[in-house]
Fold this protein.
Amino acid sequence: MEKLRTSLTNTLKNLGDTLAEDLSMDDMSDFMFSTQQTNSELDYPTSIAGVSKVSPRSPVIESDEDIINNIDASYFIEDDFDATGYELKKLFGFDLHLEDVDSERMRLRSQLQVVSKKISTLIMEKSPSYNTQIEDMDSINISIRDLVRGIRTIREALSIAESESRTALCILANEKKKRLLNRLHSTLRIIKTLYETEFHLRDCIESGNFPVAIRLCLEAKEAANTYRHFSCVSDLMTKLVGSTNLIEGALDDALATFTMVFDQDQYVLVYSAFIMLNKVELASRKLINHFIATLKKSSRKIVEEHCVRGRCINDTELSYEALCERIDPEDVVSTVRELCYVMCKILIIYHTILRFHTEDDERRRLGNPTEDTSMGVMINHMTSSLNAVFRVALSALHSLLCCQDFSTLKFEELLDIVDMANRFRDFGHTFFGDSSDEIVVSLEKQAITYFLHYHSERMEELRLFLENECFTLCPIPNQFHHI
């Protein structure tokens, strides 16, 4: 705006200088037309070479508006227009007359005067408006400067805000990365723990700490289910299923060991594991089956060992009864003694476990009044299977007694066998409620056979004695009387 005002001022100054120069010419009024002047009043030189004098014309009065409208349009095309050259070029190629040249000069002067007058009038008319506009422009300039300062301040504030925003975004991005890394670290630690769980499970199973193993397995399954979208965790899920089967197999083996050696602390861990797996009923059935299998295996093993001692054929395909028949008569007493001892030991363990569950259920009932479905399951199954378990041991002893010939034994050995069998019967009657009638029948048959054989041998000895001895009259006193 300042540049525009300077340019306009310079233009007006140059125009004023031009007007002053034109008006200062000698006797300028001589060249100004008035309404009373005519061409006849003008004095022209009479001796101008090449220019002929013409007669004067009557003046034509034109309005200022017409004069302005008659100005050649070429004057308005270019800013640096050469008016002198343009007017001189117009004279080329024509026969010049003084009157025409003077008329053209007067026309141009008239146009200049009208334009100058018009410009002066416009300047005078627009001067207040121009001053007002200049003041407005100054005010606008001040406002623009204030606006520029405000914009500069805003830009500085925006730059500071942008810097702070970038810093805040960097902090947020770092915090997000930190959280992602922490989450990734946590996930990797969980996956590492899941992989280490397999080894912890094996250690717990080997040490017999089955509840901890089951708890680890369940927690690992839950965690693995959360991260199952990882392929490595998916493979681990398969291993955990195998670990569950491994735990159940180890629990089954542990139950089998309790039929020979009962450790209450270890049994508590195994029983707690079955409770956690909700398989108490299955555990009771397995325990009874293990006792039956242990009784059969133990009785067969004892008989096989005595068969080996007696240099008998050790054939695993032989039945238990066939093995009993192959026992040397000299080893019958020791076999019966060892068999009764082992059978009673296993049956005592059975009763010990039954008593443990009775006390444990009572303790749990007092500590937890709410109903527990696992309470009473073991007791019911073991109580209902008392007779079946004892009958297995009774069958083993009965087969051994029936398959042997006691007739060749010594009387003391027969008494030992009878005593051990009676003690076994008393044990069964007391703890298992079984009268063991089969043992009584077998002992009676064996005793009859033994005494028949014993009587036959004694009679044979008597016969031989009577046949080989000489007899004389026995002296008797005189007072002896035969009744």
DSSP finds 14 helices and no strands in the chain. The CA atoms of residues 458 and 464 lie 10 Å apart. The radius of gyration is 71 Å.
